[in-house]
Amino acid sequence: MQTTIKQEQSKVKETLLTPRFYTTDFEEMANLDISNNIHEFEAVLEEFRADYNRQHFIRDEEFNQSWDQLDHKTRSLFIEFLERSCTAEFSGFLLYKELSRRLEQTSPIIAECFLLMSRDEARHAGFLNKAMGDFNLALDLGFLTKSRKYTFFAPKFIFYATYLSEKIGYWRYITIYRHLEKHPEHRIYPIFRFFENWCQDENRHGDFFAALLKSQPQFLNTIESRLWCRFFLLSVFATMYLNDFQRNDFYNAIGLDARQYDIQVIRKTNESAARIFPIALDVDHPRFFQLLDECAQQNSCLINLEKTSKNNIIDKLAKIPLYIGLVVNFAQLYFMKPITAQNSNIVVK
């Protein structure tokens, strides 16, 4: 019997670190002038049309076995990984699909790019949901569509956040793939074999959003844009770091140390962003990862308090210094002097 996971049944509390669903100003998107970068968009569109992964997401015989050999803790953590990943991919599908529909008449090239990216995201979400079926579970994607709250982001914020999400997704997938290629004894489930081609979809999506950003110089070449780039770099890095701190046991199960894995992914994503953004974060600053460690510890304490909280005045007061500590640490990270990308010593490979 397959169990369908619904939001109210699983009782997962939505927080700032939870995968979110987004909407935007579709009229502003429709009026964007991309003429100064049209050749890059045409090249990206040809890449999407080639559909290199058309035959990639096909389950083979290795999936056809029982996974009861996984211990309970590893199984629970892996199911959570599948659920969060599926939700994030499905969120991208919904946003890209709606953008393709809204822009079809005004920006046919951009609309087709969004349509083909929604195709990719739908494949990813469907593949992850089938994997959940191996554990007698499935996400009710129709229910998620109707029940989840949608967060409004202005187009420029969509561009910053999604560019970084796609690029960090590439580095997360390829880092895990390369590790398990060297250490196949830690590959606890066959889905990891698909990560090499999978991450190329993420990379192409990131290239599309890079083209969008380059077509709108005002999103990259002003003092305000530098501040926003800084904010989104820190937000994306901190979200991953705090989330993965809670899931160290999952990474241990596949032979990785969560902290070292995140440090490598952050460094590589920071290098990639330096190609497009006017600034990059100084991740080599001796306090950068120390402050993230402190934030992760404070967030962990808040989660533990939430689990045991009786919602009385004592419990509420106990959270105040933790919230203050998080704000202070994030402020220190944000105001840490960034690196000017064009003149930095960052080596982009």
From TrEMBL:
GO terms for molecular function: iron ion binding; magnesium-protoporphyrin IX monomethyl ester (oxidative) cyclase activity. One of its GO terms (cellular component) is chloroplast. Pathway: Porphyrin-containing compound metabolism; chlorophyll biosynthesis (light-independent). CDD domains: ACSF. Residues 80-213 form the Rubrerythrin diiron-binding domain. It catalyses: Mg-protoporphyrin IX 13-monomethyl ester + 3 NADPH + 3 O2 + 2 H(+) = 3,8-divinyl protochlorophyllide a + 3 NADP(+) + 5 H2O. Catalyzes the formation of the isocyclic ring in chlorophyll biosynthesis. Mediates the cyclase reaction, which results in the formation of divinylprotochlorophyllide (Pchlide) characteristic of all chlorophylls from magnesium-protoporphyrin IX 13-monomethyl ester (MgPMME). It comes from the Eukaryota. The gene is acsF. HAMAP family: AcsF. Its cofactor is Fe cation. This is Magnesium-protoporphyrin IX monomethyl ester [oxidative] cyclase. The keyword Glycoprotein does not apply. It is found in: Plastid, Chloroplast. Pfam families: Rubrerythrin. InterPro entries: AcsF (IPR008434), Ferritin-like_SF (IPR009078), Rr_diiron-bd_dom (IPR003251). The keyword Metal-binding applies. Its main location: plastid.
